[in-house]
Structures
1.
Amino acid sequence: MSSFTPSFTIRPAVKVAGAVRLPGDKSISHRYAMLAALATGVTTLRNFSPGADCAATLACLRALGLEIQQEGTTVTIAGRGPQLDPPNRELDCGNSGTTMRMLAGILAAQNFASRLAGDESLSRRPMARVIEPLSWMGAHISAPENLPPISIEGSALHGIDYKIPIASAQVKTCLLFAGLLASGETTIEEPSSTRDHGELALEAFGARIERGRNRVSIAGGQLLTAIDTDIPGDISSAAFFLAAAVILPQSSLIVEEVLLNPTRSAFLDVLSGMGARITMIQVEDHHGELRGTLKIEPGRLLGIKVSGARSAALIDELPVLAAIAPYTEEGIEIRDARELRFKESDRIAEVVANLRRMGATCEEFDDGMVVPGRQKLKGAVIHSADDHRIAMAFAVAALGAAGESTIDSAACVGISYPDFFTKLESIVER
Ligand code: S3P
């Protein structure tokens, strides 16, 4: 993201009301696009994520010889099979760690050299987590101090048995994609279960995988077949609207056609566990991904401690959970979430600093924070750190504050949700 973009002003609101439909899920959009590239036939993806991150994935795929058409949010990709074309330039992943880490798994197995680079924020994010296991699979891959850019000399890969040390769906998916293109079998074990879109996407495109508890195996050399589908709304984007609904009494919000995959819906359990009233109206299954319509109304908002496996399951929702903590009765404690420091920004430091700007008391730990409840927030200038989830989390906190807030570098929301502010304004009542 560019570091200078206009700010956005948020005025306090009394409630949110109406219905929202979210842009397509970002995690699924990346995965379907990458597998469509490796498949035989033309894949059509409707409600593809309109964010800059997934646009970066499409741009990289185009540079690898893929013919991709896009009309609005409908994307068609003419698959090339497992072998892609050598790119004639560096592949620019922009701000997207998901693009870089997952594509590395595919590129490691190609018969050409490539280089993956990213923006300033991505250039600070750790890549050893994919470089090490891919090297064990026989990849020739390196990065200075394990930071981007990543240079890859494509080579033949072989399967491995690998225990992922820190829960990460990006790493798991990277290795599954590499395993698909490798000889033999690849087995991955994770410390706690993370989002399973990689597994479900592989199955959707016709691959057979074996799944056990926190374990997944894939046999190399399987061929994929194109699909035609629409992508459910992004539950991590929905989290901001759900959070707004629970902190503003009298709210009543419908969220339509949203992803309800159980490995992504921990935020719903947390909100209902704290006292919010959430109803699932209709649930359907498309290619193993559950989706449905939610109705949410505020109740008493108690508090919660999030730690262990639950922190990994809630990783993208923790910033907004912490941002609304002052509005809870008992406060929120987040532990075992050190990974937050390695996201698009140091999300622990940025959340704590912004809560303090709004007048809240909170305590920062290496792996999390404690934010006491029953605190009144005041309007403030929020520093987004060019991180989409920080900007959106504090836009929500600002709705319940006394006085106006300004989110700086607000255009960073375009990473996942370009129309976020317009949509938010369309459902708030003042
Ligand atoms: C993602 C996994 C998570 C998440 C990111 C998207 C994915 O990252 O934070 O926004 O699509 O697999 P990690 O796998 O690094 O935890």
Note: The chain is about 30% helix and 25% strand.
2.
Amino acid sequence: MAKTPVVKNQELTVTIEDLTYEGMGVAKVDGYPLFVDGALPGEKVVAHITKAEKKFAFARMTELLEASPDRVEPKAKAYAQTGIAPLQHLAYPAQLKFKQHQVETLFQKAKLDIEVKPTLGMDQPFGYRNKAQIPVRMVNGVLTTGFYKRRSHDLLPLEDFYIQDPEIDKAVLMVRDLLRKYQIPAYNEADNSGVIRHIVVRRGYFSHQLMIVLVTNTWAVDHLEDIVKELTEALPELASLMLNLNNRKTNVILGKKTRTLFGHDYLEDQLLGSTFRISPLSFYQVNPQQTEVLYQQAIDAADLKGNETVIDAYSGIGTISLSMAKHAKRVLGVEVVPEAVHDAKVNASLNSIKNAEFVVGKAEDVMTKWAEDGLHADVLMVDPPRKGLAPEFTAAVGKMLPDKVVYVSCNPATLARDIAALQEFGYTAKSNQPVDMFPQTTSIESVTVLTK
Ligand code: SAH
């Protein structure tokens, strides 16, 4: 093997120059990058090499010699090992700048001349998440809830998750204590044995309704009636308690089958004055306060006058579609998860919206068909998952040529790629607006408007 500038277990003093998109400090040794966990730009640290590859190395910080003025005291130690909040040691204003800078860097690399505006952040960047998916495992013979140690499936016990709605943390502990009381065996990944795999909790930020889903390896859970009775008595906000069966050896959290144990088979919440029903298998934005900010950006960007046809691709439970329907002639939503489309239809009638239709399907297939049928959209809204737009989707946009594309992105890398592809059809973007949906983490959400 060729000689690398550093070797495993070597210790050296370095100055951190940058942060990767994953939040690791970057130092250079004769141009060779060193990724130092937990170190911040401007800091001088002693780095212990944990892995040396041909083109780069990873290191652990063993000593902080000069701290960045942006360094803040992290929360509990076990918490820092989970990777739930990889930017928690960086002051919040610096986190917002980091996100803006990440988008700028990716745009520059893709040769896109687009202004990136300062990230819109939160006043209280903790306790914001409305959803938790908590693994349950045996730790030293005791049923335990917490989170995995980074890059592993070793469960670290945790009671305070800091970025979640504190009412969710409380509900998780309530469920954990009942599972302990009735001696329900926790799931064991090694041999796919045991009963309880995950506790999934959602809480409506505006409605204060709680939904709890117990994800189990079998429908046969001992003492289920007692557990339901005690939970409903202990949690007055409980609107829905469900059992979800997942008996496969998989990292996917929810199985396909769900049974209602108490209340409804959905949760209700409000966004921008409309009410939404959310099924356990449907996507719903996890930061409701910032979702309103994000959607408002998208609505303002669409600049609807009332006579437009709008396509909302990747429409989920119809939150963006229905927020736009009030200002447009017609909205067409397309979404791949059937439960979410069902929710979207119910949500339309719940809010007396008659000019929104929803189709189940892959956005790339349905969009291609719409383009072939000669359907024209004045505004195309897209809000794809991390992998961005499928090439067939982009091709269909080139055929339909909507006047405006409003792109809500949760991954600036695929956003840059997709904007570059849309430029080929004559679209340009002037600016990008990041909105911080995930404080303390490295995730970046943003809105871009493309016009012809
Ligand atoms: N706009 C919605 C949902 C955005 S999340 C909101 O703001 O709540 C992205 C959505 O895309 C998810 O609901 C996911 O189920 C859906 N999805 C993923 N791949 C898809 C595809 N190929 N075609 C259509 N929808 C897809």
Note: Residues 92-109 form the longest helix (18 residues).
